[in-house]
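User: Some background: our group keeps a shared notebook of sequences we're curious about, and every so often someone picks one and asks for a predicted structure to add to the entry. Today it's my turn. The entry only has the sequence so far, pasted here. Could you supply the structure so I can complete it?
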Amino acid sequence: MAKERAGIHHGDKLHVRKGDTVIVLRGKHKGMTGKVLAASPRDHTVVVEGVNTVTKHVKPSYGREGGIEQRESALHASKVALVDPETGKATRVRKQIVDGKKVRVAVASGKVID
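Assistant: Of course. Here's the predicted structure to add to the notebook entry:
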């Protein structure tokens, strides 16, 4: 039997997807916006472009130079919110059926996101 993970709920679903534009709500990067590069529902984390960058020392390997590079690190998904396409502010997401298709809708403005 699989070991239960503490603190993870809702069947490993996230409110944001890869490619979404999000705003950071908490932490030292609060207020920054960026595109979601990767989303990990299992860990409940997201990687946001230009946010939470860390310095990585890379060892040279075949066909690749070594050195020091900047990379984005993961943030907990609860620290980010989707940007409303109409107002540009943070919004929650609701699911709605439009033309027989289930889509995501911004709660603040009612605009269809996808």
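Suggested note for the entry: The chain has a mean pLDDT of 88. The chain is about 0% helix and 45% strand.
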